[in-house]
């Protein structure tokens, strides 16, 4: 393989520094002196891209002077994964447990290699989420001595890891902070604040980056980490971090207004890593037109408060002064969880809540997993509720899945005295294309309630019957409410035909409402006409 081609392959691995393919190649070239052995093991860096891949390959080679020299040399490498890879290769060659080889090395290392050996043990243990003592407890006869030696040199280990928290390479910072946090048995935020207190504020951006990477890896947020750890003496340091994160949030806000839903979704996902610091932005995203963006924002808000999604939804829905639109969003978010039935039933039965919120909870019950065969029985009680909005929610819930009992309940709801219930029933009629209710929908075009008339128009549009064009044309000409005429114009644009075109042309010329005129013009174009 030519050097030029090899360089291209190494760079295309997409990793950098000591942890990636390039770092792997460099360490292999540095430690393997025998040319034949180098040719065999170094090329594994290209296919794997791991810092220790050449060592894993070396472990498959029959032990000899050249391979043993390479392993001894690798124990001095500045990258801890290379040192650990050398120990693993030794363990494989000797048929020993990896932890025992590590413990033996730490316990026996000469003074000049002591810190490097202790640092390796600390990082290997932390990578497993354990303290060094726990990790080395069952590492053979020298496990205890090795753990004691690491703890005796904890100041040097801490200092070495703190240096990496401020490393130039961003990917190293978060890992070093997690390792240091695990080694000391302290939170990442507390460890970082201690490091910041001993350094000038010129390094604050680097420190902020380290904590942010920890938040991303652990699925938490920098804001909550700092809030939980904050103590009065930390105020200045925390404010320095908050200032940096605020600048980053300022840049992210632009993504919330993007026309590309993918970009808005990515923006909200990034905002979640800021937690309480991004509360204003996450609250704003709750009003996004896309459901996936709203759900991400709600999860971010719940996480920022240390609550489950259902706990956050319950608090928001029951808080004083929360508008119905916000309650709807939280109910929608809760309904995205398939095990949502107990939560929604609790909200639906809470008579302290306004009827609108209870009705929305009932309507979303159809999204939950569970008692599908008995769902109609659950909804039947709400069909008889004293509040029209609750009955309307029950009717809406009957749309999914369709059933004989549900069709009968929808038919009965079309005669309900409350316009909200009738409108909901018409919505189900249209959604399910219940043509058997077509004449009832036509009759309801004369309802005294504009809400019902508009719902009837929408239902007839979805039913798609040619005989409904004439009554819809009459509604477009005569209804006194502009929103109903808009709906009629849209329905006629869908159904088409000469009567539809004539009514749309008349609306374009004579209707007093500009929105009706606009919809009529658009409908004529859709039907193949060129209105003036």
UniProtKB/TrEMBL annotation:
<dbReference type="InterPro" id="IPR011989">
    <property type="entry name" value="ARM-like"/>
</dbReference>
<protein>
    <recommendedName>
        <fullName>HEAT repeat domain-containing protein</fullName>
    </recommendedName>
</protein>
<dbReference type="InterPro" id="IPR021133">
    <property type="entry name" value="HEAT_type_2"/>
</dbReference>
<dbReference type="InterPro" id="IPR016024">
    <property type="entry name" value="ARM-type_fold"/>
</dbReference>
<dbReference type="InterPro" id="IPR004155">
    <property type="entry name" value="PBS_lyase_HEAT"/>
</dbReference>
<comment type="function">
    <text>Catalyzes the hydroxylation of the N(6)-(4-aminobutyl)-L-lysine intermediate produced by deoxyhypusine synthase/DHPS on a critical lysine of the eukaryotic translation initiation factor 5A/eIF-5A. This is the second step of the post-translational modification of that lysine into an unusual amino acid residue named hypusine. Hypusination is unique to mature eIF-5A factor and is essential for its function.</text>
</comment>
<dbReference type="Pfam" id="PF13646">
    <property type="entry name" value="HEAT_2"/>
</dbReference>
């Amino acid at each position: 393989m030519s050097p030029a081609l090899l360089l291209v392959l190494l760079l295309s691995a997409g990793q950098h520094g000591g942890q990636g393919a390039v770092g792997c190649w460099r360490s292999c070239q540095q430690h393997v002196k025998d040319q034949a052995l180098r040719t065999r093991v170094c090329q594994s860096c290209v296919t794997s891209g791991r810092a220790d891949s050449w060592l894993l390959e070396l472990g498959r080679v029959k032990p000899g002077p050249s391979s043993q020299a390479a392993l001894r040399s690798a124990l001095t490498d500045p990258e801890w994964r290379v040192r650990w890879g050398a120990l693993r290769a030794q363990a494989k060659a000797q048929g020993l447990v990896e932890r025992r080889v590590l413990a033996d090395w730490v316990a026996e290392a000469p003074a000049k290699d002591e810190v490097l050996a202790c640092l390796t043990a600390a990082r290997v243990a932390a990578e497993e989420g354990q303290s060094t003592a726990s990790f080395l407890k069952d590492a053979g006869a020298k496990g205890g001595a090795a753990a004691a030696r690491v703890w005796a040199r904890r100041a040097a280990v801490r200092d070495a890891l703190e240096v990496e928290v401020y490393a130039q390479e961003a990917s190293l910072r978060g890992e070093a902070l997690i390792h240091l946090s695990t080694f000391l048995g302290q939170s990442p935020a507390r460890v970082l604040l201690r490091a910041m207190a001993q350094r000038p504020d010129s390094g604050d951006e680097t420190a902020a980056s380290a904590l942010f990477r920890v938040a991303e890896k652990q699925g938490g947020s920098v804001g909550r980490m700092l809030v939980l750890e904050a103590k009065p003496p930390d105020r200045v340091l925390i404010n320095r971090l908050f200032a940096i994160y605020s600048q980053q949030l300022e840049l992210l806000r632009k993504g919330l207004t993007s026309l590309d839903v993918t970009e808005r979704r990515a923006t909200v996902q990034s905002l979640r890593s800021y937690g309480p610091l991004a509360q204003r932005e996450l609250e704003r995203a709750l009003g996004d037109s896309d459901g996936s963006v709203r759900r991400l924002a709600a999860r971010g808000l719940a996480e920022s408060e240390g609550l489950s999604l259902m706990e956050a939804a319950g608090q928001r829905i029951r808080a004083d002064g929360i508008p119905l639109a916000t309650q709807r969003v939280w109910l929608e978010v809760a309904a995205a969880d398939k095990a949502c039935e107990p939560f929604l039933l609790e909200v639906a039965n809470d008579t302290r809540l306004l009827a609108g919120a209870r009705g929305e909870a009932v309507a979303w019950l159809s999204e939950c997993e569970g008692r599908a065969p008995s769902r109609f029985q659950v909804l039947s009680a709400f069909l008889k509720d004293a509040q029209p909005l609750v009955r309307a929610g029950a009717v809406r819930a009957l749309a999914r899945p369709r059933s004989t009992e549900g069709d009968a309940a929808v038919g009965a709801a079309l005669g309900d005295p409350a316009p909200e219930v009738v409108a909901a029933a018409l919505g189900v009629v249209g959604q399910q294309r219940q043509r058997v209710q077509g004449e009832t929908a036509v009759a309801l075009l004369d309802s005294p309630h504009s809400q019902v008339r508009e719902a009837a128009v929408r239902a007839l549009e979805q039913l798609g019957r040619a005989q409904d064009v004439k009554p819809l044309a009459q509604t477009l000409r005569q209804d006194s409410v502009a929103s109903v005429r808009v709906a009629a114009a849209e329905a006629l644009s869908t159904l088409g035909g000469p009567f539809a075109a004539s009514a749309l042309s008349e609306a374009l010329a004579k209707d007093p409402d500009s929105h009706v005129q606009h919809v009529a013009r658009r409908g004529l174009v859709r039907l193949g006409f060129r209105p003036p």
